[in-house]
Design a protein that fits this description.
Elements (H helix, E strand, L loop, with lengths): L12 H13 L12 H7 L11 H7 L11 E7 L6 E8 L5 H13 L5 E3 L2 E3 L6 H13 L10 E5 L3 E7 L8 H4 L10 H9 L9 H11 L6 E5 L2 E7 L4 H17 L16 H11 L12 H12 L5 H8 L3 H13 L3 E4 L6 E4 L8
Parallel strand pairs: 1-5
Antiparallel strand pairs: 1-2, 3-4, 5-6, 6-8, 7-8, 9-10
Length: 366
């Protein structure tokens, strides 16, 4: 349908450039299109008709102010505790829909979701608490399949302690059920022009694979599968968060402190001999070699991760380490034993009330 009163002046060229860059990188358009005019790009995407009139999809995708034409072009995010009565904070993402998913994910990462860190060798990994590929796919689906009609409402995401609730306005296609979505099915987008642009940008795959991609991503994370519902005139998907936010907050605290403690020098880390007895220094030297360096190459990935955690929280327990890294007690015990055998750490006091003594300099590079 034509967007009445819309002209090329209402199109944001930076949004067009964003799309072109993504589509070229995805190898779904020819790189020569980068030099095309805005009008030419929109024509190639069938967003302008033969009379030069801009279609609704063109304004939604690339408009400077789509909300001037469509009042429901918003993505609302709210943080709640256990129900809707205790709103803590909220954000509203507006603007063109081609860049909306990036903006939503950035806000979620900065304010709403946790990113527990771990180390693979010397590389720091910060995955979201739920798989980002699944989260993005759900956000893309909500944006693409939304009903943008006059009576429509905004896309809504509610982040609770135990789950993430994402709803978009728009019923399933005729003859489709939730069971249809969970099995092999054909793709029937509500907004085919929008879906085609998202496909060319490399954001989605064709042939109705989005739901499968969401569930496969969660399965690979070894988390509880999401719930899908057709409700309130739209589609709802619920992702389940970790059972204990406290554990995740502990990891984030460790991460923040680690940033301040990581050694910015490129020199090899040295043993901290300050305020130690001669025996402590001698023992450390015997275990680290004549040059007083930590041979981290002899530590595996799990040992490095646990050592980094202990360095910043020397009272961390076996159970906490198991929960942080999602491994068995035997794996934690094996790593701690190796670290003690190499005289890098030592246990002081009881299992319940004791702590880990760090026998090397605390700001070693992880």
């Amino acid at each position: 349908m034509i967007c009445n009163d819309a002209t090329l002046d209402d199109i944001d060229r930076s949004a067009v450039n964003y799309f072109v860059k993504k589509a070229i990188n995805a190898r779904r358009i020819n790189d020569s299109i980068a030099d095309d005019s805005t009008e030419s790009v929109l024509q190639n995407l069938k967003l302008i008709n033969s009379k030069g009139e801009i279609k609704n999809a063109g304004i939604l995708l690339f408009g400077k102010q789509p909300s001037e034409f469509f009042h429901s072009v918003q993505f609302k995010i709210g943080r709640f505790k256990t129900d809707e009565t205790d709103l803590i904070v909220q954000d509203v993402i507006d603007g063109n829909i081609i860049q909306m998913a990036d903006k939503v994910v950035d806000v979620l990462k900065s304010k709403y979701l946790h990113s527990p860190i771990h180390y693979e060798g010397l590389q720091r990994i910060e995955p979201l608490e739920i798989p980002e590929t699944s989260l993005r796919e759900a956000i893309f689906n909500a944006i693409i399949h939304k009903d943008y009609g006059f009576s429509s409402t905004s896309i809504q995401m509610k982040v609770y302690d135990d789950r993430i609730w994402l709803w978009n306005n728009g019923n399933l296609p005729d003859g489709y059920t939730i069971e249809t979505l969970l099995t092999e099915h054909s793709s029937q987008p509500r907004n085919p022009l929008i879906a085609e642009v998202f496909y060319r940008a490399g954001f989605i795959e064709a042939w109705g694979r989005g739901i499968k991609k969401i569930f496969d991503g969660v399965k690979n994370y070894k988390q509880k599968q999401p719930l899908l519902q057709s409700t309130m005139g739209g589609m709802l998907i619920e992702f389940f968060r970790n059972d204990n936010d406290t554990e995740i907050d502990t990891v984030n605290k460790i991460d923040n402190e680690a940033v301040n403690n990581v050694n910015s020098s490129k020199n090899d880390t040295k043993i901290d001999t300050d305020n130690k007895t001669d025996n402590d220094v001698d023992n450390t030297k015997n275990n680290t070699g004549n040059n007083n360096k930590i041979d981290t190459e002899k530590l595996n990935s799990m040992e490095l991760q646990i050592l980094g955690t202990i360095t910043l929280n020397n009272k961390v327990s076996y159970t906490e380490l198991m929960n942080i890294f999602k491994v068995s007690r035997s794996t934690v015990a094996r790593a701690l034993k190796h670290l003690q055998e190499r005289n890098i750490i030592a246990r002081q006091g009881s299992d319940r009330k004791g702590y880990w003594q760090i026998k090397v300099k605390k700001n070693f590079l992880l």
